[in-house]
């Protein structure tokens, strides 16, 4: 004490240093990073065409998001500021397991090469007009129990009680938690996503509350690894019809289009003759599908692929979003004279939730 009285300047300096350290810590001045490599006009053209072919169905013509299911906006600045490898390239490449977002990289059974996934990522980045921000990779420390209280009060209505996603992304999703660092999550909470229902919580919650809720979300991660996969063999045309000698299923369709999971399951149990089309990206067909289904992704060139489909057999298409991709394919099939066509109303997630069987890929070492 005496020492401090003798040296008030030291004390003042000490206090100011402490205070300003606090202030800097609370201000979150993020430093900017330079832009990534710029696309050539040809690369940009291909990337734009790929966006139209593969992404518009759910994320929309203008990258606005929320066209089908709860596909997020792909133009909010805060998404692209927070690190494109984490926030964009990885979901695009590997998908978010258990959500309608499939993996598009060829390595996991998708249609795009590594270079195409990078170019599409850069194209989206350039379109967003965002500047990259340098985010720390350190863990965010917070009180998980307090964080859960904030979460249930402020976030659960949109993101789900268990982070399963209701009208907003599944924050408890293991692939998302594996791909996003703590700081990416905190940045999204603090800054929100411009032009979407996700508000900037830096103006609503205290920094401590934001850290707590970030720590709570992190505590939901139970580990996820990209499994080494041996891709399954795709069915050949002579395998397209399930139960080729069975009876016609005689479905009563809702709105002249939809068959219920219950009716489809009953028909399959009765060994009815059906063609099942999985209209998702084949990477997710690889992971799990209704036994006997053939992958016919929503972006397939139908003139090429439908020539081997029979017109006199009941065709049922399904997807996970929960119907958008299947609707899209069936509409085109009907334009080509396939009248015996239907869409699985509940989608494959609904099918699985009802406990009906799927064929899953074995984990391979
Ligand atoms: C069948 C619908 C569908 C299609 C087609 C689709 N997505 Fe998605 N995408 C989603 C959904 C749903 C999510 C959110 C999943 C979650 O986390 O709950 C998502 C999430 C994402 C994310 C993560 C964004 C964020 O805010 O976390 C990116 C990036 C993304 N998609 C890019 C793409 C790109 C690029 C394409 C085209 C190659 C594409 N998606 C095609 C449905 C789709
Ligand atoms: C009114 C509904 C709503 C509420 C309440 C809400 N969010 Fe969101 N949140 C969204 C939507 C919608 C998105 C996706 C936005 C987009 O299109 O990019 C999102 C995105 C996010 C993301 C980015 C996810 C990703 O995959 O990129 C995080 C993290 C997040 N929210 C956390 C929270 C937290 C934590 C709270 C509570 C403090 C919260 N949100 C409250 C609707 C909401």
Question: How would you explain this protein's 3D organization?
Answer:
This protein has about 375 residues and is α/β, with parallel strands linked by helices. It folds into two domains: about 40-220, Cytochrome c-like domain (Cytochrome Bc1 Complex, Chain D, domain 2, Orthogonal Bundle), CATH 1.10.760; about 235-360, Rhodanese-like domain (Oxidized Rhodanese, domain 1). Helices cover about 40% and strands about 5% of the residues. The chain contains 17 helices and eight strands. The strands form two sheets. Strands 1, 2, 3, 5, 6 and 7 form a six-stranded mixed sheet that branches. A two-stranded antiparallel sheet has the order 4-8. Strand 6 (about 315-320), helix 16 (about 325-335) and strand 7 (about 340-345) form a beta-alpha-beta unit. The longest helix has 20 residues, at about 10-25. Bound molecules: heme C (2 copies). The site of one heme C has 29 residues, from helix 4 and helix 6. GO terms for molecular function: electron transfer activity; heme binding; metal ion binding. InterPro entries: Cyt_c-like_dom (IPR009056), Cyt_c-like_dom_sf (IPR036909), Cytochrome_c_Oxidase_Subunit (IPR050597), Rhodanese-like_dom (IPR001763), Rhodanese-like_dom_sf (IPR036873). It holds the Pfam family Cytochrome_CBB3. This is C-type cytochrome.
């Amino acid at each position: 004490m005496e020492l401090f009285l003798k040296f008030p300047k030291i004390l003042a300096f000490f206090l100011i240093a402490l205070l300003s350290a606090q202030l800097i810590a609370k201000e979150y001045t993020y430093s900017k990073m330079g832009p990534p490599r710029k696309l050539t006009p040809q690369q940009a053209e291909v990337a734009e065409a790929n966006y139209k072919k593969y992404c518009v169905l759910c994320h929309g013509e203008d990258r606005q998001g929320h066209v089908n299911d709860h596909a997020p906006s792909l133009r909010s600045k805060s998404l692209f500021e927070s690190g494109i490898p984490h926030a964009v390239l990885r979901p695009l490449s590997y998908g978010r397991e258990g959500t309608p977002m499939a993996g598009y990289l060829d390595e996991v059974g998708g249609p795009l090469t590594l270079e195409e996934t990078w170019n599409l990522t850069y194209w989206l980045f350039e379109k967003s007009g965002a500047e990259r921000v340098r985010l720390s990779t350190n863990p965010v420390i917070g009180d998980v129990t307090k964080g859960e209280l904030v979460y249930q009060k402020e976030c659960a209505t949109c993101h789900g009680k268990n982070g399963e996603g209701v009208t907003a992304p599944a924050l408890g999703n293991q692939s998302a938690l594996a791909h996003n660092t703590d700081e990416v999550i905190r940045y999204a909470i603090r800054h929100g996503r411009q032009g979407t229902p996700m508000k900037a919580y830096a103006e609503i919650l205290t920094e401590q509350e934001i850290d707590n809720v970030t720590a709570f979300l992190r505590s939901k991660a139970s580990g996820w690894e990209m499994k080494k996969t041996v891709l399954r063999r795709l069915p050949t045309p002579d395998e397209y019809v399930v139960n080729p000698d069975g009876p016609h299923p005689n479905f009563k369709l809702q709105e002249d289009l939809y068959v219920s999971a219950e009716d489809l399951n009953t028909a399959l149990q009765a060994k009815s003759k059906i063609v099942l089309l999985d209209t998702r990206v084949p990477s997710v067909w690889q992971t799990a599908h209704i036994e006997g289904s053939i992958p016919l992704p929503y972006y397939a060139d139908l003139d090429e692929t439908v020539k081997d489909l029979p017109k006199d057999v009941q065709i049922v298409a399904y997807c996970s979003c929960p119907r958008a991709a299947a609707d899209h394919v069936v509409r085109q099939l009907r334009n080509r004279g396939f009248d015996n066509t239907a869409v699985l109303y509940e989608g494959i997630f609904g099918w699985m939730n009802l406990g009906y069987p799927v064929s899953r890929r074995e984990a391979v070492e």
